[in-house]
Amino acid sequence: MATARIDADTRILIIGAGVVGAALADDLTRHGMKSVTVVDQGPLYRTGGSSSHAPGFAFQTTGSSVMSELARRTLDKLDGLTLDGQWILKRVGGLELACDGERLEYLHRRHNLAQSWAVPSRIVSPEECGKLFPGLDSSAVLGGLHTPTDGVVKALRAVEWQARRAIANGARFYGHTEVTGFRMERGRVTGVDVGRTPPVPGNPSKGDQLPEGTSFLEADIVVVCAGLWGPGLGKLLGLELPMVPMEHCSASTDALPSLAGFSDEEEIDQPMVRHQATGSYFRQGGERILWGTYEHRVIPVDQSQIASPEDFARTQIEPAIHPLTWNDAKDGWNELRRLFPEANSCEPAEGYNGIFSFTPDGNPLLGEVPGIRGLWLGESVWLTQSAGVAGVLADWIVTGDPGVDTTSLDFRRFDQAHLTRSASIARASENYDEVYDISHPRNQTMQLRKFATTPFYVRQEALKAEFGTSQGGWERPLWYGTTKANQPAVPRDAWGTYGWSPSISAEARQAANGVGLVDRGAVSVFEVRGEDAGKHLDEILGSAVTLQVNGSAHAHLKSPSGGMAAVLTVLRTADDSFLVIGSSPEDVWHLRRKTPHSDTVTVSDLSSATTALALIGPDAATVLGSVTRGAAPAANSPETPVLDVGGVPARVVAETASGLGGWTLYTATEHGLYLWDLLVEAGAQHGIALVGDEAFTALRIANGVPAFGVEYGPRDNAFEAGLAGPSTDEGARPGHRLLVRLRMRSDLHAVVPGEPVSKDGCVVGFITSSAEDPASGHFLAFAWVDPEVAAVGAEVEISHLDQRWAACVERSR
Fold first, then answer.
1. Which segments does the entry list as coiled coil (predicted)?
2. What does pLDDT average to over the chain?
3. Tell me: the pLDDT tens digits for 597-618?
4. Which CATH superfamily is 82-154+246-358 part of?
5. Which CATH architecture does the domain made up of 526-606 adopt?
6. What is the pTM of this model?
7. At CA 267, angle to CA 262 and CA 271, rounded to 5?
8. Closest CA relative to residue 563, chosen from 687, 669, 405, 417
9. Topology at the third CATH level for domain 11-55+155-244+361-418
């Protein structure tokens, strides 16, 4: 374990004794923390939350490497454990079914993802599907994906086992203890107000009893692991947590002949089954099949609709369970009877609508809350990733190093300024509705479109731009419909070219051969000001920023693992003032977190007040010079003067992200549209290209420029990502892959992120991003690969659906 950064006597309070809270207490005490307290408003350990009814499915294959890793860690922790002689995890394996050609193709995609993330898997025939689950009608399916190391977890047993070990190591668990408020002092949490809840008849609490009259619990760190009660606790803090509890239909069959002999309902011998095309899943429960379905109307649950502790005590009905709505469940039942014909002879047995939480992107909400030191979140975590998430949180809290790339997990990926309850419900409802849909890396949300637009949106819309959205909800031009493809499109498969247009390469070619205009308006800009501003930035950034006024430098905030927490551009605007330009709201938080409360250093967010456009390509200097009073800085110059650009005051900064060279012009948001029109008019005689985000990606890949948050992140060092030369103090760490660029051998082959890279039949890496080379028409891709195949000229294969295509390493560090 990494060295602790907090004292062992630090008082840590966990709200929620479900699968996450219990696992976190266990891991914190294993770190040597001596004062860990867990409270829950329900009885221990059947608290009435989502953990109390979780069906136990734990599939490791997802579209995200980190989510798959968290699932693997969960299963590895629970493997082989028993509670009072009863099993906690059974690795019965998983079986995903395809009943049509489109879904069979998608199973190959999921098999490739499993290979990329090191999850054992194989495509199996219909006959093999029938052998794996004997009651299944193999004639109803075209094939399956078998993942033999997946398993069923008994959630309540997992909770109690981890809680018992935590208690043995000094933790305290209190049931029937409701958090009613948070206390803060000088921006730091100091504890929680609590009250007693009534006992639940027939469900005695197994934990300690909070001393009579206790109304406040002091804490140095508070971690919210309250599951579906998270939004309510967020409201107490004045926070909008972008998570929404949802109802989900679940029931079981009567006893089935094919499962005769499994007299104990706890017996599970058959693999878990998912039929994503119909939103259904099934697993054995003794002689019965337990089943559930997502294929019904979205049923969000407001906090007021969740039973109170008093209602729980009065009815003995768990708050996370609502009555089964049969009209929503019947399609799932009919699908079960089609796949398992013997179910036609029985009626559905007991069922319910279970409640569990969804976020806009399907990932958890983890990390320290911005603006409240010591307050952490471990919210919207499913059983599948529960122990893995808890381990990450424990490492993060104690050592400062979470041990994984938390970019897609961190609560701060959502900008609080853009969050409302209506927005959370809209996006989370979409995620629920699409949870089992075919998911392509280029899929775009259909909710809250035009939610946040740059000043240039009205012009882009007139130019028939195809829009996508960024993580922050910004409407982004992917390509422009008015750009005419000047070369015939290469015939490629539909999966590889989903969300792609020939206009993309045309825009990139025009920019590479002349000049292009890029919307950079969704920018994060913040000001660091004060007499100690320069000294402070020098201390916290990975490279020095001792600059002259109007000078600039690229720098990064180091993560505790030695990687990069954020990649920034720093501009010195005055002796005591700096502009820091990042790419996300998290960058602001990282700086603020490292900036102490002081009168000599302040951090202000200027993002909404600032917009930007980039001119790139060999003719960018000519176009900029034609409208600028005064000389622009030389290409790659660190100088960042404020120039008069056609009457607009704009700070001009060398552009490096595309690899073409040029300048980014930062100005006040109110001047943005005028500046766009000015530059478009000035560039017309040079054939200026309007460059969408997809063309920009193609240019940066073609020019060998990796992107932070796409190619590399906090777990990677500069050497491995190809950002530092051999003379750097950092080198490739043992067991770490290197970032390379691949070129497809055939121009007919289009590859997509997440696909595995192989050598001699062994997986050696995976793709992070890809695009058509504007010059040659062959697809290029960045990929992380084992050092043994990272040399220029190395021949590899990329698995694309059910094909393997030849590629070579064209660019390496």
1. none
2. 93
3. 677 898 898 999 999 999 999 9
4. D-Amino Acid Oxidase, subunit A, domain 2 (3.30.9.10)
5. 2-Layer Sandwich (3.30)
6. 0.94
7. 100
8. 405
9. FAD/NAD(P)-binding domain (3.50.50)
